Structures are given as structure tokens and as C-alpha cells.
Amino acid sequence: MSSNGKPTPQPPAAAGNGAGGPPKMYQRPIYRPQQGPAKRRRGGRSCPFSCCCCFFWTVLVILLLAFIAAVVGGAFYLLYRPHRPAFTLSVARVTKLSVSSSATAPAVTDAIDVTLTARNPNKKLVYFYDDFAVTAATAANAVPLGEGSVPGFAHEAGNITVIKATVSASALAIDPAASSDIKKSGEFPITVDLETKAGVKVGGLKTKKIGIQVHCEGIKVAAPAPPPPAKKKKLAKAAADAPAPAAVDDAPAPPAPAATVARVCQVRIRVKIWKWTF
Predict the structure, then answer these.
(1) Which among 43, 49, 133, 182 has the fewest CB atoms less than 10 Å away?
(2) Per-residue pLDDT, 249
(3) Ranges for the Late embryogenesis abundant protein LEA-2 subgroup domain (predicted)?
(4) DSSP element (H, E) containing 156
């Protein structure tokens, strides 16, 4: 207190220094940005929905293409009535046949003449073939009997073409277990196959060639008869001083009779996918 009895005024306390404690530090408030509404994905569609949509359109396009192909194929069939060519094997004859007597490595030497008739039953379609590869084998165990070839040709609409080929083999090794299929006497069944590539021509349009196989079975052939032993005929002397004429051998044995089979052959389409042929 002062001398005149009034209380002495005290200096004001420092700001933020209450109760004599340490001064308080100013803290800036933490900024928290407000999150707005979640952004919608571009397009407004989820991924599964997009995949389903793509799958749907793909299937729709495939079905549409299949429908168009069916309509075109149906129109082509109604317009041209296409039919496969028909092949008939009419003659098969063995002109030479011999099998070596080896028990471990037998070999066959033969020659087989075959005659086929090819008919194009179509009125507006022309077939054109590459060269034919002709093979023959026994029917039981498919023992090969040789091979041959026939030149290719154009098969006009409604045309009938005669095909002649000779299937031969020279010392062709065969399986000893199946050598009994080839009989030196009597008949034995064989199969004949022709393979080539064929295309179709309609007016000025040509298709791509595809492989075909002509398979003929149910054919029975016989080996040619062995020649008889040589005989010598002596002629009587025409005169006492005339020398005896030279001996004359008999004529060779006739070939085996031709087997007129008239077998209708199957025409198969050969499709090659990579290493496999169907």
C-alpha cells in the first residue's frame, strides 16, 4: 500500500501466463479437406458388364456369319445340285507275281493291271484332278503290292472317263508274318486306292483343290498260272538225207484271266490338319 493508504496497483499479468505457468504456444488448426462424392467410372459401366457385352456381340456375329453361310450354301445346292464323282473298278488282273522264299525277309515282285470308270453326274460342275497315285494291298493285313500313277485330267459335266493303271513292285520287302496273304495259286482279296487333289469349276469360278481318296475293296484276283515244263517235239524225217529240224518249244502260258469285279468305289475327302490327315 502507498503512504496515503491506497493500494499500490499491480502490473497486469502477461498474456498466456496464468497462474505463473509457462506461456502457451499457438497451434495452427489441422486442415482436413472435405471428401466430395465418389467419382463415377468412365462410361458408367463396370468391367464384368463390359465383358458380357463383348461376349454377346461376338456370339451374335458368329451366328450371323453361320446363318449367311447356310443361306449361301443352300442357294448353291438348290441351283447346282452338286454330287460327288463316281468311280467303279471294272477290271483287275495280275500279270506277274513272285514271292521270295526267304523266311526272315520275303520280298514280292508283281504287276497288276486295273481299269476304272469315272463318271461326273453333275450337269453344271466340272471337276479337275491332279495326277493320281495308285496303290494296291492285300485286304487281310494290308500287305503292299506296289504303286503306280495316272495323269490328271479335267472331268467335264456328265462325262465318263476310263482310267487304266498298272500297279507294280520290284523286290518289295513285306512282313514275314503276313506273307501268306499273297497266294501263288488261287484267288486272294486286295484293295486298290487312288489319291489325288481335286477342285471344282463352276462357270468361270474355280475352287481351291482338296485331297480326295478313291477306295476300292472286295476285289479278288488270282496269280498267273505257272508255265508248263518245256517239251520238245521231233519231226519225222522228210527224206533220208534231210537233217532233222530243230526242236520247237511250246508257247508260253497265258496270263491270268481278268477279274471283272464292277465294284463301286468310295470317294473320301482327305483333310490335312498340321501333321494329321483325316
Answers:
(1) 43
(2) 44
(3) 115-216
(4) none
Which residue in 214, 253, 215, 213 sits closest to 231, CA to CA?
A: 253
Asked if residue 81 lies in contact with residue 73, where contact means CB atoms within 8 angstroms, the answer is no
Q: Quick one: which of 54, 72, 116, 108 has its CA closest to 91?
A: 116
Task: Report residue 41 CA to chain centroid gap.
Answer: 51
pTM of the model: 0.66
Average pLDDT of the chain, as a whole number? 78
Three-class SS state of 204? coil
C-alpha cell at 152: 490328271
Distances (CA, A) of 278 to 61, 85, 212, 214: 29, 19, 10, 14
CA distance linking residue 176 with residue 143, whole number of Å = 10
Phi/psi-derived region of residue 157, left when phi > 0, alpha when psi is between -120 and 50, beta in every other case: beta
Phi/psi-derived region of residue 19, left when phi > 0, alpha when psi is between -120 and 50, beta in every other case: left
pLDDT (0 to 100) of residue 159: 95
Q: Please state, in angstroms and rounded to a whole number, the distance separating the CA atoms of residues 250 and 231.
A: 6
Among the listed residues 276, 98, 104, 89, the one whose alpha carbon sits nearest the alpha carbon of residue 190? 89
Task: Give pLDDT, residue 258.
Answer: 59
- pLDDT, tens only, 101-138: 888 889 999 999 999 999 999 988 999 999 999 999 99
Q: What single letter denotes the amino acid at residue 207? A: T
